[in-house]
Amino acid sequence: MPTQSSVSKSKSKPVQQKSGELDAIALLTQDHENVKALFEQYEGLGERAFVAKKKLAMQICTELIKHATAEEELFYPAVHNASSEAEDLVDEALVEHAAAKDLIAQILSMDAQDELYDAKIKVLSEQIEHHIGEEESELFPKARKAKLDLLAIGKAIALRKEEISVPSPQSLS
Ligand SMILES: [Fe+2]
Ligand SMILES: [Fe+2]
């Protein structure tokens, strides 16, 4: 068992907290950071590192599907019901999710050698960056104001994410 001090020395793991203990906004924000880091890793891979590219792309797509599904089933409806101000933002977010899922389905059905593979990952990363920016700057502040039980929603999101497995391209259409 590591002692508290040995844990706190680890710089790569800033928060020693299970995701089930985070409130919904903290958990979703942590997911955002994780997926941004994965896109950065992809950028750093060599042009012909096809196996690594495919593996990382699968990981990115899986993380995004888990995150988006949990948001759509648990977070967005709660915010939509609790805040009339957030309705348009939730609608916009759902349209952005649909566009991202379409691109994810294409990526999952491609080989890393395919000519447009890197371009699709790049466009996905740009779309996700834009979407994350809107959630964090507009939707999350409204959710905080709406007096939701964010801890309970966070627990439900963490559980739901564990249930969702690697998507197949067909499951996204
Ligand atoms: Fe989202
Ligand atoms: Fe999100």
Polypeptide structure, described:
The chain is an all-alpha fold and 173 residues long. It has one domain: Four Helix Bundle (Hemerythrin (Met), subunit A) (Up-down Bundle), CATH 1.20.120. 72% of the residues lie in helices and 0% in strands. The chain has 6 helices and no strands. The longest helix has 33 residues. The radius of gyration is 17 Å and the shape is elongated. The N terminus is likely disordered. Bound molecules: fe (ii) ion (2 copies). The site of one fe (ii) ion (FE2) has 6 residues, from α2, α3 and α5.
Record the SSE blueprint.
Layout: H1 4-9, H2 24-44, H3 50-82, H4 87-108, H5 117-145, H6 150-163
The structure holds fe (ii) ion (FE2) (2 copies).
Quick recap:
This protein is mainly α. The protein has one domain (20-168): Up-down Bundle (Four Helix Bundle (Hemerythrin (Met), subunit A)). It is 72% helix and 0% strand.
What are the salient characteristics of this protein?
173 residues, Four Helix Bundle (Hemerythrin (Met), subunit A), disordered N terminus, binds fe (ii) ion
Named once each, the bound ligands are: fe (ii) ion
CATH fold title: Four Helix Bundle (Hemerythrin (Met), subunit A)
Structural category is mainly alpha
- The separation of the N and C termini measures 46 Å
Tally of discrete structural domains? 1
* Name of the CATH architecture: Up-down Bundle
Compressed to H and E, one letter per element, the order equals HHHHHH
Query: Which residues form runs of ≥5 with pLDDT under 50?
Result: 1-16
Task: Characterize the largest beta sheet: strand count, sense, and whether it forms a barrel.
Answer: none
Q: Total number of β-strand segments?
A: 0
